[in-house]
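Hi support team,

I submitted a single chain yesterday and got back a structure, but I'm not sure I'm reading the token output correctly. Could someone confirm the output below corresponds to the sequence I sent? I've pasted both exactly as they appear in my results page.

Thanks,
R.
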Amino acid sequence: MKTRINRRRVAFSFVIIVIIAAFFVTRLIDIQVVGAAAFNRASLGKMSIPETLYGTRGDIVDSKGIVLATERMTYDVTVSPRNAKEFSRTTEVGEVTVTPQMAAKEIAAITGQSPDDIISIINDALAVNPNSDFAYVKKGADVDAFTQIKALEIPWIYFEPNPDRAYPNGAVAGNILGYVGSDGTPLAGLEMGSDECVGGVNGSQSYARGADGVRIPGSTVVSEAAKNGSTLRLTIDSDLQWFVQQSLASTASAENAKWGMTVVMEVETGRLLAVADYPTFDPNNIDAYAAEDRGSRAFTSPFEPGSTMKSLTAASILEAGLVTPTTPIYSPQNIEFDNGARFKDHGPHPSNLTLQGVLRWSSNSGIAQLGVLLDPERRYDSLVRFGVGEKTAVDFPGESAGLLRSWDQWDNQSFYTMFFGQGLTLTSIQMASAYAAIGNDGVRQPLSLIDSCVDHNGAVT
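Hi R., thanks for writing in. Yes, this is the structure output for that exact sequence:
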């Protein structure tokens, strides 16, 4: 009897297990096959949404801490068209129902659009795709607009942060600051050359969203934290930079010059206080300027220095003890040397001069005759020690080293013309550095444009 009862219990249990298994198999088929499409549609609003965490780009400031370049945040306002439906809002008078038309009117009052424009954005997206979950309402909204729209708490409105570079002083020092692209990539000037200091590193996070399109509280997961850039402090004095730029522009315009450059520096330290270029540009609106005017010719455009080279020649032969300021020299208007080189002076002057007179009258023939007292190898070495033919310590992006051929490559003409700045090229920065050495009792200091890099913890490099 007991054996029969046990068999019945086993059979009953087996039937129950089969029924349960059949239920789960049926349900599994229903989920994965029959209702798969419907479940996929329902899950669209519940998926994990990736989001970029932006690392703030560091400021660039002048020697007094005045901000020359900084980061500002703008926001793209977006909408989930398929979720753009009426919703309830708690107010002082109780719960009120807000329709899409009412919400569109509220947004439009902030963005400057019309309510119909916003409704059309939603309808146009749905016409293309009834399940559309994304469309732009307004790109580049400022922080005020973002704050006001966010305060409306419209569940199907979202925001995409976009960091934007701003230059509060416009064109002041724009030639050396450079600029960044629309995607935040540094493209020129110190923005590019000092990106290791000011550049931020973006991070990432994700969050879950319900079927109604609303972000689920507490669902945010940070995958990688963002890192902010440091502050770059320059040696530039922004007030002096402004004044020099204005003066240069005025003078260049009066002389109908195509371009011009001005360099102001401390001869004792090599600190650059102002580096001005004409024409220059405002990095807030780079598209308004020609590509060739979006940099610093003072660093990148070498030229034959001409008679400004005579002071370097005089310094070299004086240091070598080969002449004194009153050493006499016969300086004709036209001169031809034994190797066939010949040239003339620009204007009339007395024929009998001293070294002082040669510089006073800017005599090519006089400086050439005195300069050859220094043998070619020592001449070349002296030019190198003045910084000719090599980049400065600033190493500005795109900086030119100019052109200085080795002494054994000088031709008959340049053998003499180099004494008065023909047959070689320098940048304005190189020439300023050389003259600063004369002004600093013969000691040439390495030039500096950057004072320090200060990270967000206050650590100074």
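A quick pointer for reading it: The longest strand covers residues 67-79. Let us know if anything else looks off.

Best,
Support desk
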